[in-house]
Each structure stands twice: as structure tokens, then as C-alpha cells.
Design brief:
The two termini are 30 Å apart. The radius of gyration is 16 Å and the shape is globular. It is an alpha+beta fold and 202 residues long. The protein contains four helices and nine strands, in the order ααβββββααββββ. 13% of the residues lie in helices and 29% in strands. Strands 1, 2, 3, 4, 5, 6, 7, 8 and 9 form a nine-stranded antiparallel β-sheet that branches. It has a single domain, classed as Methylpurine-DNA glycosylase (MPG) (3-methyladenine DNA Glycosylase, Chain A, Roll), CATH 3.10.300. The protein binds a DNA duplex (12 and 12 nucleotides) through strand 3, strand 4 and helix 4.
Length: 202
DNA sequence: CGGAAGATTTCT
DNA sequence: GAAATCTTCCGA
């Protein structure tokens, strides 16, 4: 299990460091695991695309103002949940959106939860992976340094080749929509979107 | 207090 | 291309 120290870095560094780590959820019906292949950093005070932009500690963003290593989960479009990992020290509202996973364990249960047999479609998007991992707002504020929801190193230690692009669906954020804060494992077939030619920024 | 829009997914 | 569906934010 990754410990607190791992999360006490800025959101951009954490987003990159999370690629290749494994998200684990121990549910009553079985253990679910997915290897992180796509993330996005949301940088609070300086990021017009972030929920915590120019905000205060209250409501749903409250947990972002706490210490890193906790779960920030929110409902989007009235029907899907998205999971973030809170980054950095107390009172620095930064977070990393988990956008896609490669299924590692509990695939049969994931198929049941997602109502599909397609393994590639199980976790290839922020809303999809929450459904597959049985993550809802019930897990809001959970400490990722203890069970049942936590991160660990991959057993198979492939070194991921990481690509950088602009973030997805944040056009409303003006200049911030073009910041290079999305990280992907380049060869992964489990991304939320295929990388287009010329899209890579770093 | 009302309306608009959203860090999405799925079906047509 | 549009619907589904509800929370949050912003202007009046």
C-alpha cells in the first residue's frame, strides 16, 4: 500500500507518478483492482478548470483542502461519479482525476457492475471506472492509506512510457483548457480516448 | 430563487 | 448528434 508521503507532492507531479500504480477496492463481493493508465491534474488556485478554483473549504471541495491521499469524488451530469486523489499538503486544493484503468483483478465482477462483456470498455473513462470499481460518493473523503480503498505498486513492474496532452472536456476554462496536464500510458489500449496525431505536448 | 451548464456515457 | 439527470454556481 502506498503511504501518505507519496501523496504529499503537487498535483502535476502526483498525476505523473500515479501512472502505472494500481487502484484497489476491497468490496464485500470481492477485490477489484485496476492499473492507472490515464490521469489529469487539477491545480486549485491557478486553474480555471478546477472545482476548487478561487474557492474556499466548503461543500464538496472540502476534502481537497485537507492533506493529500484522500478520495475526492463528485457526481457529474447528474448520473456519473468521478474519482480524484487529493494531492499536496493541507490547505493546497489540488487533485488528480483518475480517467482510465487497465483491469487487473475482479474482472468478472466488473463486467457484472458495468453490464458489458467488453474488457476494454470496463474502465476506459472516469465515469466507467467508478462504476466498474464500485466507487460512488459513499467513498467521498476515504483515506487512501487504509482499506478498503487504496493504491499499491503494480506486481509486474513495467516502466510506463508516459505521454502528455491537454485535458479533456474543459473548453469552458479558457487558457487553462490548453495546459498540458493530462498524462497517459502511451501504448495502453485502455485509454478513454485514442491519442490523435499531433496531440502530444511533451 | 431560477436557470444554465457541467472533469460523461450511451444510443441513434 | 442528442438524451439522461441532478448538483453547483451565478445573476437577479
Amino acid at each position: 500500500m502506498l503511504e501518505r508521503d507519496f501523496y504529499l507532492k503537487n498535483g502535476i507531479d502526483l498525476a505523473r507518478a500515479l501512472i502505472g500504480k494500481v487502484l484497489v477496492h476491497e468490496t464485500p463481493e470481492g477485490i477489484l483492482k485496476g492499473r492507472i493508465v490515464e490521469t489529469e491534474a487539477y491545480m486549485g488556485a491557478v486553474d480555471a478548470a478546477a472545482h476548487s478554483y478561487r474557492g474556499k473549504p466548503s461543500g464538496r471541495v472540502n476534502v481537497q483542502y485537507g492533506t493529500g491521499g484522500y478520495a475526492y469524488i463528485y457526481l457529474i451530469y447528474g448520473m456519473h461519479c468521478c474519482m480524484n486523489v487529493v494531492a499536496n499538503e493541507k490547505n493546497v486544493p489540488e487533485a488528480v482525476l483518475i480517467r482510465a484503468l487497465e483491469p487487473v483483478a475482479g474482472v468478472a465482477l466488473m463486467k457484472k457492475l458495468r453490464k458489458t462483456e467488453s474488457v476494454k470498455a470496463l474502465c476506459s473513462g472516469p465515469g466507467k471506472l467508478c462504476e466498474a470499481m464500485r466507487i460512488t460518493r459513499e467513498q467521498y473523503g476515504f483515506d487512501l492509506c487504509e482499506r478498503p480503498l487504496y493504491l499499491e505498486e503494480a506486481e509486474e513492474k513495467r516502466e510506463p512510457r508516459i505521454g502528455v496532452t491537454a485535458r479533456v472536456n474543459v473548453d469552458y476554462a479558457g487558457e487553462a483548457a490548453r495546459y498540458p496536464w493530462r498524462f497517459v500510458e502511451l501504448e495502453s489500449p485502455y485509454l478513454s480516448k485514442r491519442i490523435k496525431p499531433g496531440e502530444l505536448m511533451g
